[in-house]
């Protein structure tokens, strides 16, 4: 009998994991322990750091104590948001495998897992289509002032001035749109933008030029992209080299009235210069789903300026399996491991 911890939350319930595993491996002899954390009703955040960033994880929901109590003698753990810190890993001698049902295993201390010989899998691109569609929605809302016009009409004000030439906003057809990062989400955004008739510029040092040509996008430097793009959308991963990738220095390269969209990670963008750029007109509109402080405080200076939403980009549509492509609700490595049909491996993409 293999004991499995299925750790879900208020978005992906643990019962979805256990039901999918039971269906995939009906004769594997699995027993389930469950944990349910409060994300997204309570924001995720860092868990377990010692004050110097050591041993902890980021973007996690729940506590180390909750995970340790729920794990017990389980050898397999499937989770979305629960924190698997160095403490959790070191105090769980029976744990042999961690599967993370999200695009990156940021809630797992990978160094501690590697040292303990525990393989970790994750599911890059799981919700890429949903994230790309949400990004396009943010972009259009910001470009055409949709939220401001909607709010005014709800208050009884008919904002005819938004129809004036100087306030009408941009069109995607014929516009140059720059994508900073060209992974699973960015490439889908590019495909949709091209269908709108946009010319898509891409800045990503890891993108193969042959792929860019095949996709019909123009690969260029970040500075050139910023100079030429009427709309810029962030899609890079956060690393030490990408923190504040857009900042006061290079944001000044944007053409007058440009639209900036950040639905990736708050750390990619320096938020300090944004109020001034909006006031000066360098930025014509701003659309955000991520922030430098989450949730942003009530006196945050950008509350009234952008089209903003509270980290809703990850939402998959109803009926979409919690991980993997439609019809395959769990990544194969965790299921195979639980059935004793898989060897060991380090971090692996499912």
Automatic annotation (TrEMBL):
Matching InterPro entries: D-2-hydroxyacid_DH, D-isomer_DH_CS, D-isomer_DH_NAD-bd, NAD(P)-bd_dom_sf
Keyword Glycosyltransferase attributed: no
Location of region: Disordered: 302-339
Amino acid composition bias (Pro residues), ranges on this chain: 319-334
Annotated Gene3D superfamilies: NAD(P)-binding Rossmann-like Domain
Name of protein: Oxidoreductase
Sequence similarity: Belongs to the D-isomer specific 2-hydroxyacid dehydrogenase family.
Keyword NAD (UniProt): yes
Example GO molecular function: NAD binding
Source taxonomy: Bacteria, Bacillati, Actinomycetota, Actinomycetes, Kitasatosporales
PANTHER family reported in the protein's UniProt record: D-ISOMER SPECIFIC 2-HYDROXYACID DEHYDROGENASE FAMILY PROTEIN (AFU_ORTHOLOGUE AFUA_6G10090) (PTHR42789:SF1)
Domain D-isomer specific 2-hydroxyacid dehydrogenase NAD-binding: 136-306
UniProt keyword terms in alphabetical order: NAD, Oxidoreductase
Pfam families in the cross-refs: 2-Hacid_dh_C
